[in-house]
Every structure is written in structure tokens, then in C-alpha cells.
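testing teh design pipeline on a random one, pls ignore if ur not involved
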């Protein structure tokens, strides 16, 4: 979302930022310079991190180098500090330096002295990441170190995505010839934004590599620590596989070790519909639970272990856990965040947790500013921000004396507060919202904690035969209970609200108004205005969603085998040739933005009729193509090179056919025809 915001700087985000800046200037600077300085000194990263983030966004937009501008601002800060020695003069220059630092680092990360060429060239690359999914084509990320251009080898340092039928090892060095192309989306409605996903990882090229297209020439062994972590992860995974049934074992590997390669599609869909996908990826939830459990136990041993020792043991265990689970960006992000929060609470108890949270974000963005465009980064920090700001306020809304009911309400309040900032981000990326997330969070918080605790104890005592069996049994029951609970939530009526299509500007405006509400909550006029704007925005999202549900349209999808859907109000009639699995994937994505009850059928030769309100659609399939007639317009889907004898109103070419003037090629995206 932020990447598109950086690329398409619409007027609405700018206006929202100007409004927010004006309020900030009036409220803060109107109180006096001393108050401003005091607030900055108490929580400096609440100001520095947003400035750095704005700089990163500006770096994405800027078409000129900002390196010299940053250096001038940096030395200007030093001069004003040593010569004028007035904080009110230094701070604006320092703020500009932080802003330009974010922009400059972003440009340095994006900058390439030599760009990889498209097409087939000889290249030398190193395998840096291997996907463990059991698919025919295995996904690999290669760091290309050199490429042959015009008969000469040119040094490179870019990562690409390459699919190969054989799984390679991390560290393999190979010479390969692959047709690399710029990553593009298929242009089908509701599809996952693969271009933005890989762009956030600074990857823009993708290709396929046959077994005869490469040769292994060397192997770069990983460092000793990484190898030990890998071996430990493999060993622990084998313990789970040997002790639990396959379905529970696949879930245990995802929850405890971060390995989702064995999860079934049904399990992923159930967790997604129930709003529990975050539990399938090692992130803040897991690290937070482990930190709480371990630190809770160590504090009980305060006769033998000091508080400082308990903190150090907890931190060492958290980082070891991060290494064993693969050290993914989400794990490292959560581990660093909770490590700093733990240190801040133990050694600087008077400090602000919010300041520590923003400090951890700044460290991560200094290391890799592109994390700002990572969905996991956005969701994790948005959730923590919501918890810090809204949890106590929501918790105080209901007074409960019963201990267990209070715990249940606190869990509900925690889930609601975490959703406050994540809702627009979730709707933007996934186009749907789990209505029973608050029920899911209660079960997840209880069962995930039990599963993680049992899993760690199971690993620690796996060498004790009888205890091993007992712990495996308890772990299996807990995993089974979680599966049943998520399946129950998934089956509840109206569990998922689909059909949301938010623009980057809408998300930015909503978050800006939410920030204004938080900052100026004590100002009644501002508070009521902010709440009114938010209600209007949410109402407009719902109106657009209901409008999407009532849509009447026909879609011809960008697919190597024909897939056609006809939607009228709440019904979707879909037809396909080829593999049903491919059609299911396309129609499922379409349902997220245009909800409806789906009827999916294989398209047969001859005439197929579909009644769509006042429109009767006639689909006639032949060996060369498919005729589609709605009574007003005739469309021909060309499947082979032969042109139709009769001239239709529009000719749609399958994506594998050559581009012809006057034809619509599905290679550029799905063909959409809406009925009046």
C-alpha cells in the first residue's frame, strides 16, 4: 500500500497530511517552545521515526539524487549546533536532515549502477533463499553477481526470482541461462499484487530455469551459526513429524518453527476467513507469548536469578528462537521490537513504550528502508500502535469484577485495539474482513500460548520416552482443538465481509484522521469532527462494497486456459477449460472484490446460455475460439491463430497469441464488460 502511495502521490494523502500538520503546528507550537522541546526530549523517536518514514516515501518519488542535499543539511546541523547553540534553531535543520537521511538511504538501496537485462543471457548467481513448498516448480531467490553483455562479463548485485523443477541448496553457485522478464501482475480482479510484493524486496525480475539451463560450479557454505540453526530446525521438525499426525504436525511446524510448506490449502483458507492468519507466521504474537512465558518463569526464581539475569536469558532465548525459525524479516522485526521493549521496561522504567516502539522501527528502517513497504511490517507495527494507544481506553469502557470474565474482556479489548490501525491496511491488501476476529483472538491467545509452551517443553524433554509420549499427546490435542475452533469460527454465518476495494489515498486519509483523533482527543470539536469523518469514510466503504455485490458484468481472465465468469447481483456463473484448480484460484480472488455465490462448470462444445437479469448471454465454444453474445455486443475469444470468418464487435486474444492491431490481448489484463 505504501509503495503505491509513494508512486502515485494522489491529492488526498497530501491534503490529509497538510491538515494533520496544521493541527500539530497549532496545538504544539502554540503552547510554547519550551513545551515542544520538553516533549521532544522525553520521546524523541515519536518525531524522528515519522520524519524518516516521510523521507523514505519522498526518496521513492524523487527523480534526482538527494545525496548532496543530505550532506549539506547534515553539515548545516553541525554548524547551527556549535555556532548558534540554540535548540529551536537546530531542531528544524536536524529534522530536515533526518527526513533527507531516509530519502537518501532509500535511493541508495534502490540505486543500481548496472541493471540486469531482460531476455536470455548467461549469468552467474548464488542461491540465497529456497522455498520449501512441495510444488512442481520450486521457487528460488538468486543473487546475480555477473551477467554477459555484448560478449563481456559485467558485475551485478541484484536478486531475482527463478523457478526450477529441482530444489537447489542455499549457497549453490551456478552459471545459468534463463529468460528473465520484469515482474508484472496478471491484471485479474482481486489478484495478489505480486509486483508490489517483490518490489518491496527490491526484486523486479523473474524467470524459469530448466534442468539443462544451468550448471553448478561452486558452493558457498553458510556461516557456522546459520548452519547450526538450520540443523536444529531440521531436527526439531523431524521430532514433530515422528510424534504427531500429519495435519497436526503441519500446523505445529507452522506455529512453532515457522514452516508453512506442508499446510493444506483448506487450512490456510479457514485461518484466513477466521482472521487467524497471523498465527501461521512467526511474528509478534509468538515472540510476545514466548517472552512472557519465559520471563514469567524466570521471575519466579528470583531467589537464585536476578532480574537482570532473567532479562538476559530471555533475550538470548528470543534471538536463538529467531535463528532456529529461519530468521525471516517478520521474526527479526518482532524479536528486535520486543527485545527493546523488554530492555526499556527493565532499565528505563520511566521511559515511554511508544518511544521504544518507534525506536525499534527506526533501527529496522535504517538497516533496510524497504521494510516500510512490507505487509508484515505495516501490520505488526500498526497492531502494536493500536494496542499502546487504545487498549487501556477500551478496557476501561466495561467494569468487571469477576476474574475470569475480566481476562476474557481484556483479551477482547486487546484484539479490538490491535485492529484499530490495521483495519484499512487489511482491507486494502486482502479486500475482506473477518467479522468474528474478536472471538478468534480469544481462542488464539489461549490455545497458541498453550501450544507454544507445550512445544518448547516437548523439545526440551523429547529424550524422556514416557514423558515424550505424554507431551506429544497433549500437544496433539491442543493442535486438534485449535483446528476445530478455527473451523467452527469459519463456519459461522456472515463470518467474512468481502468486496472491499480501497485506494491508497483512502487508507492514508483514514490513518491521518485516526492520528488526529488520538493526538487531539481532549479537544471536543476536533474529536467529534474526526469521528464524523471516520464514520463517513467507513460508510462509503460499505456503500462501495454493496455496490460491488450488485454488479452485473462479464470477465474474461488473463489465463493460459480460458476462464469466463458472468456475475449478476449475488450470483457468479463461471466456466473454464483446462485445470479446475486454476479456475478456482481466479474465481476465488474475484470473489474477494465482487462477492457472490459461485457456480463453476466446465465449458462444453456447443451453446451454453446464462440468464443475467434482463440479459441472456449465449456462449458458443468451438475448437478455434469462443463466441459470447449478450444481444447487443458480440465478443470472440481467439484461442488459435485463425481469425473468425464473421466479424465480431470485439476480438479478445489469449495471452499466448501475438499482439494484433485492433484486438484486445489478455496479456495486458482481464477483459471486463459491464451491462447497463
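output:
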Amino acid at each position: 500500500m505504501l509503495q503505491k502511495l509513494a508512486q502515485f502521490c494522489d491529492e488526498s494523502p497530501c491534503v490529509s497530511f497538510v491538515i494533520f500538520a496544521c493541527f500539530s503546528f497549532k496545538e504544539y507550537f502554540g503552547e510554547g517552545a519550551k513545551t515542544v522541546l520538553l516533549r521532544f526530549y522525553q520521546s524523541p523517536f515519536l518525531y524522528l521515526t515519522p520524519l524518516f518514514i516521510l523521507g523514505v516515501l519522498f526518496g521513492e518519488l524523487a527523480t534526482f539524487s538527494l545525496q548532496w542535499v543530505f550532506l549539506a543539511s547534515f553539515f548545516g546541523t553541525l554548524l547551527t549546533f556549535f555556532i548558534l547553540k540554540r535548540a529551536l534553531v537546530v531542531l528544524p535543520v536536524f529534522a530536515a536532515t533526518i527526513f533527507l537521511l531516509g530519502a537518501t538511504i532509500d535511493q541508495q538501496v534502490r540505486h543500481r549502477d548496472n541493471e540486469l537485462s531482460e531476455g536470455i543471457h548467461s549469468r552467474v548467481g548464488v542461491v540465497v533463499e529456497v522455498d520449501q513448498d512441495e510444488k512442481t516448480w520450486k521457487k528460488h531467490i538468486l543473487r546475480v553477481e555477473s551477467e554477459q553483455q555484448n560478449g563481456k562479463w559485467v558485475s551485478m548485485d541484484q536478486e531475482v526470482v527463478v523457478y526450477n523443477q529441482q530444489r537447489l541448496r542455499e549457497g549453490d553457485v551456478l552459471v545459468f541461462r534463463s529468460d528473465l522478464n520484469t515482474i508484472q501482475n496478471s491484471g485479474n480482479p482481486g489478484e495478489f499484487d505480486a509486483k508490489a510484493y517483490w518490489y518491496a524486496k527490491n526484486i523486479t525480475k523473474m524467470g524459469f530455469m530448466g534442468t539443462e539451463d544451468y550448471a553448478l560450479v561452486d558452493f558457498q557454505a553458510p556461516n557456522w551459526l546459520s548452519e547450526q540453526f538450520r540443523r536444529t530446525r531440521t531436527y526439531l521438525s523431524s521430532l514433530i513429524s515422528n510424534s504427531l499426525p500429519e495435519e497436526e504436525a503441519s500446523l505445529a511446524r507452522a506455529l512453532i518453527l515457522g514452516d508453512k510448506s506442508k499446510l493444506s490449502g483448506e487450512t490456510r483458507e479457514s485461518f484466513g476467513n477466521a482472521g487467524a492468519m497471523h498465527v501461521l507466521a512467526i511474528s509478534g504474537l509468538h515472540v510476545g507469548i514466548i517472552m512472557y512465558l519465559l520471563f514469567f518463569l524466570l521471575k519466579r526464581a528470583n531467589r537464585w536469578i536476578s532480574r537482570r539475569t532473567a532479562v538476559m536469558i530471555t533475550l538470548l532465548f528470543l534471538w536463538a528462537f529467531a535463528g532456529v525459525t529461519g530468521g525471516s524479516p517478520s521474526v527479526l522485526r518482532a524479536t528486535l521490537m520486543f527485545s527493546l521493549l523488554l530492555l526499556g521496561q527493565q532499565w528505563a522504567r520511566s521511559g515511554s513504550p511508544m518511544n521504544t516502539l518507534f525506536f525499534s522501527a527506526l533501527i529496522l528502517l535504517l538497516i533496510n528502508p524497504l521494510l516500510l513497504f512490507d505487509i508484515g511490517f505495516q501490520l505488526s507495527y500498526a497492531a502494536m500502535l493500536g494496542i499502546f494507544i487504545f487498549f487501556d481506553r477500551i478496557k476501561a469502557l466495561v467494569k468487571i469484577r469477576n476474574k475470569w470474565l475480566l481476562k476474557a474482556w481484556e483479551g477482547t479489548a486487546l484484539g479490538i485495539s490491535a485492529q484499530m490501525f490495521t483495519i484499512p491496511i487489511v482491507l486494502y491488501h486482502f479486500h475482506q474482513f473477518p467479522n468474528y476476529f474478536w472471538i478468534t483472538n480469544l481462542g488464539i491467545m489461549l490455545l497458541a500460548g498453550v501450544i507454544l509452551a507445550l512445544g518448547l517443553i516437548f523439545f526440551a524433554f523429547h529424550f524422556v520416552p514416557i514423558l515424550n509420549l505424554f507431551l506429544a499427546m497433549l500437544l496433539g490435542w491442543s493442535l486438534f482443538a485449535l483446528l476445530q475452533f478455527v473451523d467452527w469460527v469459519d463456519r459461522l454465518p456472515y463470518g467474512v465481509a468481502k468486496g472491499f476495494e480501497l485506494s491508497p489515498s483512502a487508507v492514508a486519509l483514514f490513518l491521518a484522521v485516526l492520528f488526529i483523533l488520538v493526538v487531539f482527543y481532549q479537544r471536543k470539536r476536533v474529536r467529534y469532527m474526526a469521528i464524523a469523518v471516520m464514520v463517513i469514510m467507513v460508510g462509503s466503504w460499505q456503500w462501495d462494497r454493496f455496490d460491488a455485490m450488485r454488479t452485473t458484468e462479464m470477465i474474461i481472465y488473463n489465463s493460459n486456459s480460458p476462464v469466463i465468469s458472468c456475475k449478476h447481483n449475488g450470483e457468479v456463473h463461471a466456466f473454464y477449460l483446462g485445470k479446475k484448480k486454476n479456475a478456482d484460484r481466479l474465481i476465488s480472488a474475484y470473489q474477494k472484490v465482487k462477492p457472490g455465490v459461485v457456480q463453476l462448470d466446465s465449458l462444453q462444445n456447443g451453446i451454453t446460455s446464462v440468464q443475467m437479469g434482463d440479459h441472456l448471454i449465449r456462449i458458443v465454444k468451438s475448437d478455434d475460439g469462443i463466441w459470447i453474445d449478450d444481444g447487443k455486443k458480440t465478443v470472440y475469444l481467439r484461442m488459435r491463430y485463425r481469425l473468425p470468418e464473421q466479424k465480431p464487435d470485439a476480438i479478445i486474444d489469449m495471452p499466448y497469441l501475438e499482439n494484433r492491431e485492433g484486438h484486445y490481448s489478455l496479456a495486458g489484463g482481464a477483459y471486463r464488460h459491464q451491462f447497463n
